[in-house]
Structure formats: structure tokens, C-alpha cells
Specification:
With 519 residues, the protein is of the alpha/beta class. It has 14 helices and 17 strands.
Length: 519
């Protein structure tokens, strides 16, 4: 496979760009739940889709497994004047739709309270402060408050300012934490402006920028898999690895988000956050500890070391009409809310290089798209071939590169492909997999990613959240692609993207290996 060469190198790492918290680092990737304290969890946008489908069910499951403090309570904040009991009834319905029993749902909703807030009414935040004081007193909560902003981007600035005006942004007798959902800006300039706004009222140690991919058990296992297995970590470098491919395929289209998605595209929606975070976990050096600052520092070093990307190393795509599982699927331009001349990408493939001692010269391929054959999040690592192809002299072409496939979802686990002698009287080689799947070895299933992240918020562990310097650096990396959009190549719904993107993939990554993105 011919691989284009990047023309330039990245500047040296600016050490001042690393985490420089003046406070003692008390946040460490959790190994137990002993840090739980009574608290109030305040959800802004509590009547919205994210709260109904993800946040409240995740909290209910934590309650079901006895992982919440007995004096933990929720204050749901919404834009509607609702009776508290009526709101609890809607939550019960949502929980039962999520598979939580009626008995458990009834017990959990007793923890929920409701408070309306209307846009532009500063007095509502004073009333919110008063309500928090009342609930703290009623449930003997030592003023520990987490504010989860499950809100559209345009509502963030007024909400943060409102909390500050009511003096709800301060660490006082207890702790105060602010949780922010993506998107963290639209580009480098807007991300920096958003960070500046939030930092005017909240310290970085209070801010939890959530990327739900980081809460997945298999994503958290990346560091453990590397660092707990000496033969893996000793091979995790440019001397042993030839290429890395990170793929996130979505089976769905834009659904009812057409207008929003058309202003966003695959780069902003998936690459700048989810895929880039996966890249940092794959490529980072061993942290000094499992503390939040140590992990963030190594991730920031990776981002600082990524070579300036050129537009020639970005391939964009857009799905057209096709068939998926025998069903006709309309093209992107036929979706509701999409202009007939839209050039928004629903697929993107990128090739990146990391100019570091560990990864110099190793291509990293990032691929994501909508209307893929099925949902898939996967990391493929191709190891270098032996310097001498010993078996070719005997007519055996089966000895090829070893490939490690890490499935993040579904079928969570990994496969390692290597060559063995085929049974028989003649010398023949065959590639076979060693497989591990979580479902085969652990009972009870894998917790939802929001369960892990919400628990971390409550115990004050920022390890799996995104530091503001990671946000800014990731936007800087992709600025050339944003500022100079390329031709959008077409691909039928139900395929793995445009043919032009095949050059940005691991060639061995094929169906017979269990890696389903390049068939």
C-alpha cells in the first residue's frame, strides 16, 4: 500500500501547555467507592432526551447496585412548570422503558425533586440557591453540589453566569462541580472562548467535561491491557508496530437531527472528541501515576506531538441511497432538514503521524461514518513483519503480520491473529485468532458508560474527563481540515465508506479476521 508522506514536523512540546494545577492532586482513577459523600445532583435540562434516556437510568442503576450514598438526592431543573409528582411519574415511565423494574423505579424517584428555571430570569437562580439550601438541610447534605448541564450549546453561557450570580459556583463548606457535555465549541476559536467563559466562574478542578466514550469499560481497559501485560507494553512502539487504525462506525443516519448534523458533520461530531480521545489512550506514554493530572499530562503530550495535518490526508464522504439488511435506505440529501446541495461529510478518514520517540513514522488511521453496515467501535494494531520472510522460500505465503483487534463495542473484547502450521503432511501456514470476550468471562454484563462517569463525578475523580488543554489542542489539530474542506466522495448506505478512503486503512483488516471495516 502506497502511503503519502507528510511534508512537515510539529513544533517541540511546550511544557507550559501541560496540566499545572497548583492544588494537590487528590483525584485518582478510582479503585474503590469509599470516597462517596452525601450530595445533591442538579440536572439542568432534566426534561430532555439525554436526561430521560441516559442520566436518570444510569443513576437508577447505581442506586440499584447500592453505589449511591443513602442521602444522595437529585434536583431536576427544567423550563416547564411541572408538579413534582407528575415529573416523578414521567421518570418512572422512562426507567421502566430502560428495563428497570417498577419496584426499583418507585424507590429511586423518591430521591428526585423538581425546580423550574426560565431563560432570562435571573431571579430563578436565586430561588434555585434557596431550594438547594432547603434540601441540604432536609437531607443533612454538607453543601456538596454537582451541576450537570444537559443543555444545548447556546444555553451554556447564560446558565454558567446564572450559577455564578447566585454564588453557586463556589467551593464553600462542601464541594461544587460543573459537568459539561460536548460539543466543546465548533473550532479552535470558539472552544477557547467557551473555556475562557467557564474559567471566569469555575476553577478547572471543578469542571468535568464529559465524553461518554471514556466511560466504556473496554476503553478504560486500554491502559490496563497495555501496562499490566509486559509483552504488550514492550512491543507498543514504532519498532514493533507498523500501523494503528481506530474505527467508529454508526449504523444510524441523522434521524431527527438533520438540521443540527448538517451544521456539524462527522469531524466535529465524532473525530474531534471520541476518536481523538481513543487515540490519546492508545498512544500516550506510561503516566507517573493513575492521578488525573498525570493521565491528562500524557494525553496532552500526544496531542502536542501530532504532526500538522494536510488536506491530502483527509478523505470525506457522504452516504447516498442504499440497502441495509434488505431495507431501502434514503440518501443523506433526502433526509429531513438537509439542503439539496449540502456538502456536509457523514464520513471521514484521516491519516495522522505522532512525532514522538515512541511513534515516529507510524501512521494512525481514524475512520468514522454514518450508515455503516453495523455499529462498531474498534482499534486495530498491525505489528511489523519479521525482517526475513523465512517461509516464503518454501512457497508459504501465509506468514503475514500479527494484528491485534480490540473491540470496544459490540462484542467487547479482543482478538490477536498469528500464524500456525496447518495440519497435514506438507508445510502450510494459516492465520488464526486468539479471542477474548467480556461476555464469556464475566457475569452481569458491562455497565453503561454513564454509570461509570456519574460515579466518578460524585467521588471527585477527573481521570476519565477531558482537560481544557486537550480540547484546545484537538481543535488545533483539525483546523486545516475545517478551514479547507475537501471534495465529498459518495458511498452507498450500508457500506464502509467511499472507495477513495481505502488507502487510509490497515490492508489486512478484513472480514475473515473479525475486523469488519475494510471488507
Amino acid at each position: 500500500m502506497r502511503i503519502p508522506i507528510f511534508p512537515s514536523m510539529s513544533p517541540a512540546i511546550d511544557q507550559s501547555s501541560l496540566c499545572d494545577s497548583k492544588e494537590p492532586d487528590t483525584t485518582t482513577m478510582r479503585t474503590d467507592k469509599n470516597n462517596m459523600e452525601p450530595s445533591l445532583f442538579v440536572i439542568f435540562g432534566a426534561t430532555g432526551d439525554l436526561s430521560r434516556r441516559k442520566l436518570l437510568p444510569a443513576l437508577a442503576r447505581l442506586d440499584e447496585s447500592s453505589q449511591l450514598h443513602e442521602r444522595f438526592n437529585i434536583l431536576a431543573v427544567g423550563r416547564y412548570c411541572l408538579d413534582e409528582n407528575d415529573f416523578r411519574a414521567t421518570v418512572r415511565d422512562a426507567l421502566q422503558a430502560a428495563g428497570i423494574s417498577a419496584e426499583r423505579s418507585l424507590s429511586f424517584v423518591a430521591r428526585i425533586h423538581y425546580q423550574p428555571i426560565f431563560e432570562g430570569n435571573d431571579g430563578d437562580y436565586q430561588e434555585l440557591a434557596q431550594r438547594l439550601t432547603e434540601l441540604d438541610k432536609l437531607f443533612d447534605i454538607p453543601h456538596n453540589h454537582a451541576f450537570y448541564l444537559a443543555l444545548p450549546p447556546q444555553a451554556l453561557s447564560s446558565t454558567v453566569a446564572g450559577l455564578a450570580a447566585a454564588k453557586l459556583n463556589r467551593n464553600g463548606q462542601g464541594w461544587t462541580r460543573l459537568v459539561v457535555e460536548k460539543p466543546f465549541g465548533r473550532d479552535f476559536i470558539s472552544a477557547r472562548a467557551l473555556n475562557k467563559l467557564i474559567h471566569e466562574h469555575f476553577d478547572e478542578s471543578q469542571i468535568y467535561r464529559i465524553d461518554h466514550y471514556l466511560g466504556k469499560t473496554t476503553v478504560q481497559n486500554l491502559l490496563v491491557f497495555r501496562l499490566a501485560n509486559a509483552f504488550i507494553e514492550s512491543s507498543w512502539n514504532r519498532d514493533r508496530i507498523d500501523a494503528v487504525q481506530i474505527t467508529v462506525g454508526e449504523e444510524i443516519g441523522v434521524d431527527r437531527r438533520g438540521e443540527y448534523y448538517n451544521s456539524t458533520g462527522a469531524l466535529r461530531d465524532m473525530v474531534q472528541n471520541h476518536l481523538t480521545q481513543l487515540l490519546t489512550l492508545v498512544a500516550m506514554d506510561t503516566p507517573a501515576s493513575f492521578s488525573a493530572d498525570a493521565i491528562h499530562n500524557e494525553k496532552i503530550k500526544v496531542l502536542n506531538s501530532i504532526r500538522p495535518i494536510t488536506t491530502a490526508n483527509a478523505i470525506l464522504g457522504q452516504y447516498t441511497a442504499g440497502k441495509m439488511r434488505g431495507k431501502a435506505i434514503k440518501g443523506y440529501l433526502q433526509e429531513s432538514g438537509i439542503p439539496a446541495d449540502s456538502q456536509t461529510e457523514t464520513f471521514i478518514a484521516l491519516k495522522l503521524y505522532i512525532d514522538s520517540w515512541r511513534w515516529q513514522g507510524v501512521p494512525f488511521y481514524l475512520r468514522t461514518g454514518k450508515r455503516m453496515p453495523h455499529k462498531l467501535s474498534q482499534i486495530a494494531v498491525r505489528f511489523r513483519e519479521a525482517p526475513i520472510k523465512f517461509f516464503e522460500q518454501y512457497g508459504c505465503a501465509g506468514a503475514t503480520s500479527n494484528v491485534l483487534i480490540i473491540n470496544l463495542q459490540p462484542d467487547e473484547g479482543f482478538s490477536f491473529f498469528f500464524s500456525i502450521k496447518r495440519p497435514g503432511t506438507t508445510l502450510g501456514l494459516e492465520r488464526i485468532p486468539l479471542r477474548f470476550q467480556y461476555a464469556d468471562h464475566f457475569n452481569g454484563g458491562i455497565p453503561d458508560s454513564y454509570q461509570a462517569l456519574l460515579l466518578d463525578i460524585l467521588i471527585g475523580d477527573q481521570s476519565l474527563f477531558v482537560h481544557w488543554k486537550e480540547v484546545e489542542e484537538s481543535w488545533r489539530i483539525y483546523t486545516p481540515v475545517i478551514d479547507h474542506p475537501q471534495k465529498v466522495n459518495l458511498y452507498p448506505a450500508g457500506t464502509w465508506g467511499p472507495m477513495e478512503a481505502n488507502v487510509f486503512s490497515i490492508s489486512e483488516c478484513a472480514l475473515e479476521m473479525g475486523c469488519k471495516t475494510c471488507a
